[in-house]
Amino acid sequence: MGAPQNPQTRQLDDVDRIIIDLLQQNSRASNIQLAAAAGIAESTCIARVRSLVARGVVSRFTTELDPAALGLDLQALISVGIRAGQRHLMSSFQTEVRALPGVVQVFFLSGAEDFIIHLAVRNSAEVREFVLQHLSVHPAVASTRTSMVFDHEYNGFLAGAPSGE
Fold this sequence. Notes:
By secondary structure, the protein is of the alpha+beta class. It contains 5 helices and 4 strands; from the N terminus they run H-H-H-E-H-E-E-H-E. Helix 1 crosses helix 2 (31-38).
């Protein structure tokens, strides 16, 4: 038995998936472009997009930046373990870390590590400085492990997902 569905949502059909895929590729795509690609009328398309937003499927329209074009040539993923006696600080730790310069994303995890911090900086010295100044000295942090990102590709959330039929 699957997880219960939110009554405000319904299954995504092929038209929804086409619209979502196009918006993930270009959030500035016009309604005319979306409608043509989905093979539906413009009025139907705008209603579909509004429905996706109202149902919370599309939470925001955004721009993806190229970190290297901004001089941020190095990305790192830093795994963080929180001390057993400091679990009550997890929420505040996450809030503090999100506000630090260079932090792209923060993931709260289950498993061996408690958080992964996605960092974008100019060079390895800035990664080292980040770990030493913000993580190693933090009273809640028990351990860190840093991995440098050589390359990454973003597929979007529905790439390869089953249709739910």
